[in-house]
Design goal:
alpha/beta, 16 helices, Hnrnp arginine n-methyltransferase1, transferase, TIM Barrel, about 675 residues, about 25% helix, Rossmann fold, 8-stranded mixed beta sheet, 3 domains, elongated
Length: about 675
């Protein structure tokens, strides 16, 4: 039974499971499942094999239950397998190591036979886990539909097992072990397998919020919440600390399922009170409730008190972490559906109307309104939304306007003619079916309006288009937009990296993608990359650019893998939590860079998606993502230095990018071999 109804949220985070601690021998599993489902849990994390089992010649695997005791749909929908926790594939004891490998393969084979969707494999027993990862990687290569979730404690803990004793004996001031490092080592050894995920054990203490932030860029599928992590409120019921609440709400927002684990530490009687329904405030009569039902009710309370997804998020939810190729508006003619989507963005056109109104007032004083007609050219008019915004601005300010609507797409021109006739604008609007770079204007314009911006500002060739169009702008003419700047930010984005890796070629790693970023960890504040201003009448003007940027990671972030560049906040509960703060550090993984833009339309009217200044409720642009061929390990306190180029040729424009520090990468997209924008 889902934790509750939240408008717009159809993710797996609505479902909560419970871990079965005692081996359900015989017919125990169906009874445990029935009891748990009747108590409103949605699935079980259950052991598949007797934990006392050790391989012996001719022995039959002592499974928890025959495949016949549950239906195929019950196995698939309500059971997540738990692999035996005694398994230790990196043990110094050779017999234990061999037994562990055989048992792991047997249990995974049984789980595959049951058609389970996922199995939780135990955490590494020590910091060196190469053999464990090797065996798991071999298994992953044979799996098709099942996922493996590596269980990792969410803590900054002391060194593990015998490593702990060795370190303590040799170095009493030894550093603690970062559990993210265990995961990173394991997934690197497993070649970033797309079927390897994380199940995080949530304990009573948590690392710093910056350290936690790294996990939001990782493939976390489950948060196993220990009952020991709960506090007790004034009424004797379980509750969580503010930090735990923030973390769990963040997981809900990132489609992470919660699994409650442990023994009940709260003596709460629910038989007499009944169980609170997930959807309405009434009680249901149930004979006996699950011992962990109070913890489940608290999870439902946390989920239900979250704000509904905003309308913009609901519109964008199907695009989360979905890689799209940027538009090629000069090479290709947009389709009607694309035009319609962009035209629904009323916020964007409201900003344009404000900018045009201010420009009209500056161009024509109140004394001249009855004698002066302003010439305004809309270059790239599409199906007419900017024409409408211009005429509405003229009506709002009481100025007379003559509009030239220039559009190269002959299909959009047909719609534009219909709009002009329908609205009765024939006397005010002249339609020009031509490329703005080739048209010879009959007169000079006072105001030049365009909507040629891409997710990175200049990536849809606004500079090249406006350079060609500014020849018919008066010397004192106004360009809207008047300037725009691009930004980048380093990120960890495991899902995006795996999706690109699936293409199995270099070209896709040298392509920039438009993507609604969701499962990412933002590693440092964004920085400016390229800027353009219009009009630019300088004879030495060039649209080629080169810049180098250095990002300093906050001290308590930790080491990381960087997969790319971008910027957006981590939207936890009602808090916007960023990974960049200060204090001690941990390593991270760099996956690439994401890009944004901010544009000044006119004077104080701006438009953009750079998060510090982003225009609220605007959905025309998603960030752009520049991947790295290989994720880069960034040690603690190491700066990230990246170089970016904007290159121009006779027929195309392209970007090149390369990492210099902490370790050099190849120059991506050299000479525009994989990705370019055609002129």
């Amino acid at each position: 039974m889902p934790l509750g109804q939240r408008a717009g949220d159809k993710s797996d985070s609505r479902y909560c499971g419970v871990e079965v601690l005692d081996f359900p021998a015989g017919d125990g599993l169906p009874a445990v499942l029935t009891h748990s489902l009747s108590s409103a849990f949605d699935f079980l994390l259950a052991p598949l094999v007797d934990p006392d089992y050790r391989p012996t010649p001719g022995a039959v695997l002592p499974v928890a239950a025959s495949d016949l005791v549950l239906s195929p749909s019950q196995w698939s929908s309500h059971i997540v397998g738990k692999i035996s926790e005694w398994i230790d594939l990196d043990s110094e004891d050779e017999q234990l190591r061999l037994d562990s490998e055989l048992t792991l393969k047997q249990e995974i084979a049984w789980a595959t036979h049951l058609s389970l969707q996922a199995c939780v494999i135990p955490p590494p027993k020590r910091s060196t886990c190469a053999n464990y990862a090797r065996v798991v990687n071999n298994i992953l290569q044979g799996l098709t539909n099942m996922q493996l979730w590596l269980r990792i404690p969410l803590e900054k803990s002391e060194s593990m097992d015998e490593d702990h004793d060795k370190v303590n004996n040799n170095n009493p001031t030894s550093e603690t072990v970062d559990s993210w490092e265990w995961w990173n080592s394991f997934r690197l050894l497993c070649e970033h397998s797309s079927q390897l995920y994380v199940a995080l054990d949530i304990l009573s203490s948590l690392p710093s919020m910056n350290s936690l932030g790294r996990w939001f860029g990782e493939p976390v599928r489950a948060a196993i919440l220990q009952t020991d992590a709960f506090l007790t409120n004034a009424r004797g019921y379980p509750c969580l600390s503010k930090r735990h609440q923030t973390l769990l709400t963040g997981f809900f927002n990132h489609s992470v399922q919660v699994i409650i684990s442990g023994r009940s530490n709260h003596n709460v009687s629910q038989v007499s009170e009944g169980v609170l329904s997930r959807d309405e405030n009434h009680t249901e009569d149930t004979p006996t409730q699950h011992a962990l039902s109070p913890y489940l009710d608290y999870m439902a309370y946390l989920y239900q008190r979250m704000d509904p997804l905003p309308e913009q998020e609901r519109f964008e939810i199907n695009y989360r972490d979905f890689l799209q190729s940027p538009l090629q508006p000069l090479m290709d003619n947009l389709e009607a559906q694309t035009y319609e989507t962009f035209e629904k963005d009323t916020v964007k056109y409201t900003q344009y109307q404000r900018a045009i109104a201010k420009a009209l007032v500056d161009k024509v004083s109140d004394d001249e309104v009855s004698t002066t007609r302003t010439v305004l050219m809309v270059v790239g008019a599409g199906r007419g939304p900017l024409v409408r915004a211009s005429l509405q601005a003229a009506e709002e300010t009481g100025r007379m306007l003559k509009v030239y609507a220039v559009e190269k797409n002959p299909n959009a021109v047909i719609t534009l003619h219909s709009l002009i006739k329908l609205e009765g604008w024939e006397s005010m609007v002249t339609i020009i079916s031509s490329d703005m770079r080739c048209w010879d204007a009959p007169e000079k314009a006072d105001i030049l309006v365009s909507e040629l911006l891409g997710s990175f500002g200049d990536n849809e060739l606004s500079p090249e288009c406006l350079d060609g169009a500014q020849r018919f702008l008066k010397p004192d003419g106004i360009s809207i937009p008047s300037s725009y700047t691009s930004f980048i930010q380093p990120v960890t984005a495991s899902k995006l990296h795996n999706d690109i890796k699936a293409h199995k070629d270099i070209a896709h790693f040298e392509t920039a993608y438009v993507v609604k970023l969701h499962r990412v960890a933002r590693l440092a504040p964004p920085q400016e990359v390229f800027s353009f201003a219009h009009p630019n009448f300088s004879p030495k003007a060039t649209n080629q650019r080169y810049t180098k940027l250095q990002f300093e990671l906050p001290q308590d972030t930790g080491s990381c893998l960087v997969h790319g560049m971008l910027y957006l906040p981590l939207d936890f509960y009602s808090v916007k939590l960023y990974i960049y703060h200060s204090n001690p550090t941990y390593p991270i993984i760099l996956a690439g860079f994401a890009g944004y833009f901010d544009a000044v339309l006119y004077k104080d009217v701006h438009l953009g998606i750079e998060p510090n200044t982003c225009t609220p409720n605007m959905f025309s642009w998603f960030p752009i993502f520049f991947p790295l061929r290989k994720p880069i390990y960034v040690p603690s306190e190491s700066p990230i230095e990246v170089h970016f180029w904007r290159c121009c040729g006779a027929t195309k424009v392209w970007y090149e990018w390369a990492l210099v520090a902490p370790s050099p990468s190849p120059i991506h997209n050299s000479n525009g071999r994989s990705y370019w924008v055609g002129l």
